[in-house]
Amino acid sequence: MELKNKVVLVTGSSQGIGAETALLFAKEGANVVVTYNSNRKKAENIFKECKKCKDAFLVKLNVDDEKSIKECVEKVVDKFGTIDILVNNAGVLVWKNLMEHSNKDIDFQINTNLVGLIKMTKTVLPFMKGQNKAGIKNSTNIFEKSKTVGMIINIASAAGKRAANENYSTYCASKFGVRGFTQALALELPKGIKTFAVNPGMTATQMTDFEGTSPRKVAEIIVNTAREKYKIQNGGDIDIWKHVVESKPADVYYTAKKKIGEIFGGEK
Predict the structure, then answer these.
(1) All domains of the chain, ordered by start, with CATH?
(2) 181-191 confidence digits (pLDDT tens)
(3) Catalytic residue selected from 171, 230, 253, 254
(4) Which of 19, 44, 186, 229 is the most buried (most CB within 10 A)?
């Protein structure tokens, strides 16, 4: 998919993977929508950097709030007329044993990581090019080739694939849900719109006390996914560790690989 002049909305793009993803899309010539929930200052810095490369837009977004989702999408469409690529990146993690979770902790993770992602996708879809005006037209052949005019990239996790571990059972459940949603959605989407699940392992963000793979490297895989660089069927998985952690065994990627092996199960 050609990225130049495309409109790319990245949820949770004030820091971490989302911020790096927004910056890389802007450098590719895309019009990037930078979103934030609480940290406007960081988001403004990312927005300014994106603006140096191409047109950009800064919008407040809480994916746990239906009104916020609706207002965000309306503002983006008012400005750009369409949304070509949606990167559902916003996510949260509560590091606790399930018995130590409050119901609020559970709701926070499920509503942000899964329910909010689904609602965000549903709200954006009618404004993607290639969308049938009468609604989603079923396409049961996920291998069918056609020109891609829209894309949804859902940031799932190794924790949602093969890496269930203690102290984040609710998080794992939400990320397994993201992958299931992605696979089912691929069967419903019009031929010109594709969706993929990108699965990071241990990534050096605030969520992991900055241990693991560089978020910049993860962002590169996300952008390459939008370019359709990888031969993955519609609805399929792009596993970050297959593309990144083997590259420099003497530096931080070796540490990330080891951590993935200990925590997520990893892959050779």
Answers:
(1) 7-264 (3.40.50.720)
(2) 999 999 999 98
(3) 171
(4) 19
